[in-house]
Amino acid sequence: MIEAQVEAIVKAVVSQMRTTQEKTSEIPVEVSARHIHLSREHMEFLFGGEDQLKIVKELSQPGQYVYDKRVTLMGPKGCIQNVAILGPSRPNTQVEISLTDARGLGINPPIKESGDLKDSAGVIIAAGGKAINLEQGVIIAKRHIHMTPAEAQGLNVKDGELVKVKINSERPVILEAVLIRVNEKYSLSMHIDHDEGNAAAYRPGTTGLIMK
């Protein structure tokens, strides 16, 4: 009798520990809408310089924000208006869109990590009566998780690792090949695009859990 009671207590404690561990391992998920990172040269050409753009919203990642200006993307089949510009400026202009966006534009960008623009797609960027023919720079960003080194240690993952993540939503899905990105300046957050968000019935407050 006593042994059975002890076993029941142990099981209850272990179950509680697992539940607590899962809760502390939950990662905030954000849908990253289509956007563009402009180079300083392209900001100068389109708007007269980075100082001519005003910050209207801070993003979850420290030092990242949205400017007040917007651009239009133009491809062989169509265009997308009101594309957000994120700051600060980067060495090279980078456009991040979803597969649905790409099909609407009539282009075929590769799925790549942010910053890897080799063999990426091109597009025309227009604003204020001016246009830039970007020969390469359009990608579909790999789904990824930002985290600090301490968070990576706690989650038992490392920079550059690919993991599976269960999206806890009304329509739960498991996403594979999620890239881990570790930097002291990051804030814990998983980024997916609109196609992935819609597939998982994303709502604000959705979280993910790394599957080991």
Please sum up the structure shown.
By secondary structure, this protein is an alpha/beta fold. The chain has helices at residues 2-24, 40-47, 99-105, 149-155, 194-199, and strands at 27-31, 35-39, 55-58, 65-74, 79-90, 94-96, 111-112, 121-127, 130-141, 144-147, 162-168, 173-182, 189-192, 207-211. The relative contact order is 0.18.
Q: What do these coordinates show?
A:
The longest helix is centred in the N-terminal third of the chain and has 23 residues, at 2-24. The two termini are 37 Å apart. The protein has two domains: 26-30 and 143-211, Barwin-like endoglucanases (Beta Barrel); 33-141, no CATH class. It has five helices and 14 strands. With 212 residues, the chain is α/β, with parallel strands linked by helices. Residues 8-23 have low confidence and may be disordered. 24% of the residues lie in helices and 42% in strands. The chain is globular, with a radius of gyration of 21 Å. The chain has a six-stranded mixed beta barrel. The protein has a six-stranded mixed beta barrel with strand order 2-5-4-8-9-6. Strand 11 (162-168) and strand 12 (173-182) form a beta hairpin. The protein has helices at residues 2-24, 40-47, 99-105, 149-155, 194-199, and strands at residues 27-31, 35-39, 55-58, 65-74, 79-90, 94-96, 111-112, 121-127, 130-141, 144-147, 162-168, 173-182, 189-192, 207-211.
